[in-house]
Structures
1.
Amino acid sequence: MGGDQLPSWRETAAKQSIMEFVADVTNPDSADFITEAQRIAVFDNDGTLWTELPIYAQLAFALNRAAELGQASTLEDLHAGGMPALAELVRLTHADITTDEFQDVCRQWLASARHPRFGRPYPAMVYQPMLELLGLLDHSGFSCWIFSGGGTDFMRAFASEVYGLPPHRVIGSVGATKFRVGPGGPELVKDTAIQVINDGPQKPSSIHTHIGQRPVVAAGNTDGDLAMLQWTAASPQRTLQLVIHHTDSEREYAYDHDPVLGGGTERILTAATEHKWTVIDMAVDWSAIHP
C-alpha cells in the first residue's frame, strides 16, 4: 500500500507506534514477525470505535422503543430504579421478538435516529481514525474482531456496513433465544434471560470461546476493557495495546468517567503508564474525529 494509510492521525508518537508495530510484525525478516493466522486484533465498541456519550446508542434505542411501545421511560427512571429498572427496559424492548424482526427494528432506528448533540445518524458517529486503523490492519493480514459490552444483535445490525466486519466477528452481551416454528417457518425468538454480559474479565473468556487464541492487538477506552488488554499483553509475541483517551470537548467529549453506568478509566490509564501501552489522546493525536 502506498501513501498515508492513517490520514486522520497526526504525526505523533501514537501513530508512530502503530505503524512501527504493523511494519515489524508483517515483515518476514523481522524478529517480531507474526504469521497471518496469528494476527488477531480485538476492539471494544462504545467509546473505542464510536461515540458513547451522552448515552450509549443502544440505550437511546431502548428508550425510544419503549416510548413507541407505550411504556415510556427516562434516564431519571433508570437511575432511580437501578439494575431492576434497566433489566425491565431490556425485557420490554429486546425480548418477545424474533431475531429477524429485531434486526429490522434496529436498522430502522439507526437509519432515522439522530445524535442529540451532533444531529448525525448514529452510524456516522464512528471515529474516522479507527476506521482507518481497521482498514490498515485488514490490508496487513489481521483478523479484526469486536468484543463489547453492547448487545451482539444490536451491533450486528450496523457493524458489517459501518466497520466492514462479518457478523461472526462482532461479539457482545448475549440474550437467550428460543427456537420455534412460526407461521412463516422456523425462527428464533429473543428471550428475557441474559446469558453473557461481555465486560471486564468476561472479555478474555469470550475471546477464547470465539477465537481460540490470544490476540496481538487490543483497543479499549475504560476499565471494563482492562482485562482484554492485559490478556493480550501477556502474549509471548510482540503486542500492541491501544487506550482511547477522550480529551476533546470541542469535537467530541472530554471525560474520564462514564456518567451513565459509572465505568472509569483510572485503572486502564495507570496500567498504560506502567506497561508503556499506547494512549491515544483524541485532541492531540487525531486531526479528525468523525467521517
Note: The chain has a mean pLDDT of 95.
2.
Amino acid sequence: MWGGRFTKGRSAIPELPEVETIRRELSPWLTGRIILSANLVDASPGPKYANLERAVSQRIMTVKRRGKFLLLPLDKGDELIVHLGMTGIISPTAPKKHLRVKLELNPGENSTLYFQDTRRFGRFLLVPAGQYQSLPTLAAMGPEPLSKDFNPGQFQKALQASATAIKTYLLSQKPVAGVGNIYADEALWRSRIHPLSPAKQVAKRQIPLLLNAIKEVLTESIAAQGTTLNDYRTVNGDLGSFRNRLKVYGHENEPCPNCGDVIERIVIAGRSTHYCPRCQKAHKEVKR
C-alpha cells in the first residue's frame, strides 16, 4: 500500500509509462477510423489546438508515441500531435466539464473521442506529416529509453555535454526521451546517484547503472499501467498501480527501503526531488 504523501506541488505525470499505456489502448480503437468532425469545445484556436479542421475526412493510420507525445499519422499527409500536459485525459465517454476537443469517428464501437484537460497544459494539434520536429521539445528530444539507440556509449556522450544537475538534465528530455519527475527520482535512487550531481561528473561506472535503472523503472511502470497520483487515468478509466511501488518519490521523512535512513525532499529547478542522503551521496553539488 501507498504510504507516502504527495505534497507541495504536482508531478509531471503523465510521463512515458502513462502515455505508452494510453497509446496501447488507443491503437486498436483508433487505427483505421475516419475522422468525421473535429471540434474545439471551451478551447480557443491557437498553437495548442492548431489546424484541427484539416483532420476531417482523414483516416487514422496508426497510433505512435515519441517521449511523452502521442503521434497519429493520417492518410492524407498530416499528423495529429497530442500531449496530455498534466491533466489531459482521452476517453470515449463525455466528461462533465473541462472538455477541450471532440472528434467524431466513423460509425462503430465508441465513435466519439473526447479530450478533457482541466489545467489547459495539454496540446491537440495537426501538422504536416514528418514536421512534428518543428515543436521545440520534440526537436531536442533524445533517444527512446526502451530502444537500442539508448545505450551506454550514447548516454555517456550525452551526459558529458552538460554540467547541470543530473536530475534537471534528465527532465530536459535531451539525454533520453520520456523521463519525468517521478521516474527520474526513482532511477537515480536505484543507481545511487545524487540528483544534484553535475551530469558530466556522473562516474563512468554509474552510467550503465543509471541507464539500466531508467529502463527497468519505466518497464515496470508500463506493466502496472503507470502511476496515478491525481488526474491520470487510462483510456478505459483505470488507475495506474505503480504508485504502490514507488520507493522514494512522495516518501519524504520515511525510511529508505534500502538503508533505513530518512528520505529527504529538496527542490531542483522548481521540481520536488526525493532522495536518500546515505545511498545517494553527493559527488559535487551544483546550484538548485
Note: The radius of gyration is 20 Å.
3.
Amino acid sequence: MGSLIDRHTGFVAALRDAGLPVSVAEGLDAARALGVIDLMDRQALRAAYAAALVKRPAHRPVFDALFDLWFPAALGDGVALAAERAEGGTEERDSSIPPAMDPQVQRERQELRDLLLEGDEAALAQFARAAVGRYGRLPGQQSWFSSAVLQALSPSTLMASLLNAVLQGRERGGMAEQVARRRFRERIGRFEEMVAAEVRRRIAEDSDVQRAARLAVRPPLEQLDFNRAGRADLDALRREVYPLARRLATRLAQRQRLARRGRLDFRRTVRASLSTGGVPLTTRHRPRRPHRPELVILCDVSDSVSSFAHFTLLLTFALREQFTKVRAFAFIDTTDEITRFFAPGMDVADAMTAMAREADLVWITGRSNYGHAIKVFDEKYRDAVTPKTSLLILGDARSNYGELSLPILRRLVEAARNAHWLNPEPRRHWNTGDSAAAAYGEIVPMHECRNLTQLARFIEDLAS
C-alpha cells in the first residue's frame, strides 16, 4: 500500500497546487473511500475521489486532467498497441512521405472516420493512445506533441465524409445536417482532447508527473491571475464580475451607513431622557436615508498591466449599473475620462476598442507615470471626488522612478468618503524596483488583487 499512499498524497497535493480548495479532512475522506471500492475499477476510483474532493463543476476539468496523470489508464504504448506490435500488426511509417499520400495514414484516417461515426468512446480512446504512439514523437525529438498527431490524421477534414454517411442523399443545409454537424464536431473535439490527455500522460511517464501537472493544468477561473488571462478567459471573467460588482456596491453602501449616524432626533432624545430624570444619557438619531453610492474609478491601462486593465474595464462596465453615478478615468502617463465609452447599452468589447482608439492617455513616453497622471486628474477632474464618492484605484503602483504626487493624492483621498487601491502584483513584489506601493499604501489602503478569489475576499473584508 505504500505506493498507493504516495500516489494519494501526491494527487491531493497536485490538486491544491492547481488551486482546488482541498482540506485535510477531505483528503482523509478520499483515503477512506479507497477502502470501500474496487481499486481495479478506474471509473469507481475517479468517482470516489471526485465525490470527496471536487466542490464546484468548474473544478472538474482540472480534477480530471490531474487524475489521468496520477492514475493513468495505461502505461507505455498500452495493452492494445503492444499486442498489435507483438503480432506484427503495425509498421513504421516513412516520415519522408507526406501524410496525405501515405497508405498507412489513409487506412488509419478511415478507421478514425468509422469510430467517429459510431461514437464508441472506449474504442476512440484506444485509437487515440495508438495514434500518439505512432505519430506523437517528431523525428529527432524526445518529447511528445499532440499537434503532430492531429496534423497527421487531420480529423477535422473528415467532416464532409461523416455528413455524407449520415445524410445519405438528403437535402443539405437543413436541420438534420445542423444536428449531425454539431454531433460530429463534438466527437472530433473529444478525440482531440483524448490525444492531448495521452500526450500529457506520456510526458509525465517519461519525465516527472509533478512537472507535467504544473505545465498541463491551468488554475480554475477564480484562481486565474488577471495578468495571464487570455481572450477566452476574459469572456468567462465577464460573467463572474457582475455578481461581485453587486456585492461591492452593497458593501460600500453599508460602510457609508455605518460610518456616520443620521442627524440628532431631538424629540426622541428628550423623550428617552424622562427615564433618567431629564438627563439625556442616550442620544437618538434619525436613520440615514438609504442611497446608492457614487463611484470614481482610476485605472492604469499601460502595457505592463494590460490583462489586468482589461479586467478593470470589465469591472467598471459592471459597476456602472450598481451606483447612482460612476465616473471612470484611465491613465498611462496622462489621464482621460473614459465614462463616455461605457454608456448604457454599449458592448464592453466595443467600448474597449473605442477607448483604445480615442482616449488621450499618452503624454510623452507612453510609459506609466503615476505622478503626472494624478496631477492631471487633480487639475482637470478634481470635482469628480466629493464626500459622497468612493474612490477606487487599480494599478501596480510602478511609476518608472518618476514623481509620485503624494500630497495631491492625499488631498483627493481626504475629500472622498472612502478610498481603496487594488494592486494586481503579488505582495512580495511590492516595493521592489520602481514600485511605490509602500508610499501610496500609506495614503490609500492597498489590497493585493490578482484573481477573483482575492477580489471576493476584498469585498467581504469591506463589511468587517
Note: The longest strand covers residues 294-300.
